[in-house]
Amino acid sequence: MSPPYLSAGRTETGHVRRHNEDAILLADDLGLWVVADGLGGHSAGDVASSMIVERLQALPRRSDVVDFIDAIEDELLRVNQTLRSVAKERRVDAIASTVVVLVHTRDMVLCGWVGDSRAYCYEDGRLRQLTRDHVHGDRSDETRFGPAAAHAAGALTRAVGAEDRLYVDWTVIPRRAGMRFVLCSDGINKELSDAEIEACCQRFTDPGPLLASLVDGALARAGRDNVSAVVVRLDAIEETFS
Questions:
Q1: pLDDT reported for residue 152
Q2: Which of 4, 93, 200, 203 is a good FRET partner for 155, with 20 to 30 A between their CA atoms?
Q3: How far apart are CA 28 and CA 195, in angstroms?
């Protein structure tokens, strides 16, 4: 039996960066979707984002959602420790990545995040941001990270691999058919305003065309960063689904 949701994802390098340091995960079999954004301008950001996606993809889906969320957090903590160790070995400040995670259950959707990768929910003609950017002060076009930027406006305050301790924020949303979720790296919302993202959601119902409108829209602008997004649409649940 097909799951009661439909998803689509895409990641692009953009017009300015030489490498794509984003990574995405569409694990429909797990009811799990992820966007990770390796920190641009830092050593091995692509290694950090890829490690997050690979480790989360390897997790078994637990029947108890609390156990599954705990497993996700534990894995992110292990990735954090690994990245800290690798950065120390390479004698660099940090090898790190932001991440946003979406988990589906029969009755609810759970969203977790670290950093400034975002999750939006579109329902009843309105878009709302589920995440809160872990950024100090006013967010600038170029989010900065590291000791020199610690007290500057637009400084990223949290990322996987940034510090010895890692804290993941979570929010829980009651599940309703017709909901659509957009997970994205900041390459999307640097180029498109929330109003423009909302307009795309109003125009397109299916994840594929909605995803194309978001990514192509960002690339049609400056494309200053890697551009990545995952779109999930929730459908009605059949009684036999668990």
A1: 47
A2: 200
A3: 28
Residue 241 lies in a domain: no
pLDDT digits (tens, 9 = 90+) for 164-215: 999 999 999 999 999 999 999 999 999 999 999 999 999 999 999 999 999 9
Residue 132 falls inside a structural domain: yes
The total number of structural domains in the chain stands at 1
Say if pTM beats, i.e. exceeds, 0.70: yes
d(CA 73, CA 178): 28
Long-range contacts from 26-31, C-beta under 8 angstroms, 24+ separation: 26/230, 27/56, 27/57, 28/3, 29/3, 29/61, 30/57, 30/59, 30/61, 31/3, 31/5, 31/61, 31/103, 31/104, 31/105
